[in-house]
Amino acid sequence: MKKVVIACFVIALMAACGGSDSKEDKSGKTTTDNSTNPDYQNGLALVAKNKCMTCHAIDQKLTGPAYREVSKKYANSSDTIVSHLAQKIISGGKGVWGEILMTPHPDLSKDDAEAMVKYILLLSK
Question: Which of 3, 84, 102, 105 yields a CA-CA distance of 20 to 30 A from 94?
């Protein structure tokens, strides 16, 4: 299991490191390469460390919602929303994205959970 998590982290890191600072997606909208953003790098490492990709993927719904869908829903969010979403990561829950319970992460610090949320929110930019 540990090897799978490390492999996912390496693949995600490799995907994040190539290309220019901006690119055009399929809709013609220009997006920014966030891979050099400290919030992106720190959040990605925490997501990998906490095995979030077991239930989530960036562009595909698995057990939990795709991170890009979450980032679109909460685009341009306030610090209050970041704090609220961080608390949801810590305490777990269900209802917003379906009835499957998200595993709580009670040992995760509020700062680390907020870093994870900031990473996810950067995916819509």
Answer: 3
Q: How far is CA 67 from CA 20, 60, 119, in A?
A: 22, 8, 9
**CATH number of the domain encompassing residue 92:** 1.10.760.10
Q: Which of 83, 8, 16 is nearest to 51 (CA)?
A: 8
Q: How many domains, the chain?
A: 1
As a 3-state breakdown, the chain gives helix, strand, coil percent values, each rounded to 5, of 50, 5, 40
Evaluate whether 86 touches 117 at the Cβ level (below 8 Å): yes
Rounded to an integer, what distance in angstroms lies between the CA atom of residue 77 and that of residue 64? 20
Whether the full predicted model's pTM is greater than 0.85, yes or no, is no
Q: Which residues contact 42 (CB under 8 A, 6 or more apart)?
A: 115, 119
- The residue assigned the tokens 């917003």 is 96
What CA–CA distances, in Å, run from 44 to 26, 94, 117? 24, 23, 10
